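One-letter codes give the sequence; the fold follows as tokens. Both lines appear below.
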Amino acid sequence: MEQKMKHAQHDKQVTMHQKHLLVIAPYFYPKIGGMENCAYTIARRFHDVLGYRVTVITSNHLAKEYLQEELDGIIVHRLAPSFKISNTPIGFSWRRTIKKLCNEIRPDIVNIHTPVPFMADIAAPICAMYAPVVLSYHAGSMRKGTLPEDAIILPYEKIFLPMLFRTVSRIAPVSEYFSHTLGIAVKEKTAVIRPGIDTARFTNTPLPDGDPVVMFVGRIEHSSAWKGIDELLHAFVSVHTRMPRARLRIVGGGDAVEHYTALAHTLGIGDVTVFTGPQTGDALIDAYRTSTVVVLPSTSDAEQSSVVLVEAMASGRPVIGTRIGGTPFIIDNEKNGLLVPPKDVLALADTIVRVLSEKILATQLGTQARIDAEAVDWEKQIRAYAHLFDTLISS
């Protein structure tokens, strides 16, 4: 009888075991960005909906000090950076701190977000000693085509990145493009899971009346020059010459806002270009609703799975992107949007004018875009992550 009771107590403890997810990302909410939003949503959904205990390890992007806080029931450890190289925070004490936290937390599953180097590279081998590790990879190559950044990035991608891929249990890239480039050697451990959106929050509204609005949404930082704002501003000079009522709206924040504002005035389009600053929540949804077309003129294959494009599509807006990185896996040319060659200012201008001039085309593209956006609703994407995590935990 006593032995049966012990077995029953053990079974009850096993049944009541609350799975513990450890999320590691170089940056985390409230910092705004595609990777940051994805990591935050995974943490929130697994905590709020699936009942996991969730702990986050990230850098403190606001100060050079360690901070522990509770965010909506999630414990967040913000590690103090020693310094930054470009957009990469580096901490001399991080390895020791991450090992200490893993030993205390004893996670059942670890989800690391990158491609920002260093944090993922030191965390993966440590975490792999405690639990299966899933690497969410948010970019293609990080090469920018400029020195001295590429002098560091090239050896990193040739030597250290393959080591990271070998260390983790599974890789969840955000785009199929990964398997054709950096992930060729690790296809057998790769499962594409795109970042999702809450499609119910976005409404397929008719194109607005009045002056046509061309909109860009994204980081406006010198380190993110590959987002293509320079090319968009130069293209809009031609657009405005042919369509004087057209307006350009640039949504986002960063250390390059003043630079691009000055460039707009130098190009003679300062009076018809608005820099709104960062927009989130209902303000961002309204920005999509009042736009005529949303443009993402990226110049680097670092652009993998733009949430901005999918949000615009969910709003029923025609989208224009470049044939680079993961964008062609989102935009089906001439069906749910239009593609142009990267850095081709004239082609970009012509395509923007085409969409603004042909309302029937714009409406058709927007209608199909909304249908396609529903395929990456967050509910579906979280189910994919949950299946992957459960498979690894049970094995």
Summary: Residues 134 and 388 are 9 Å apart (CA to CA).
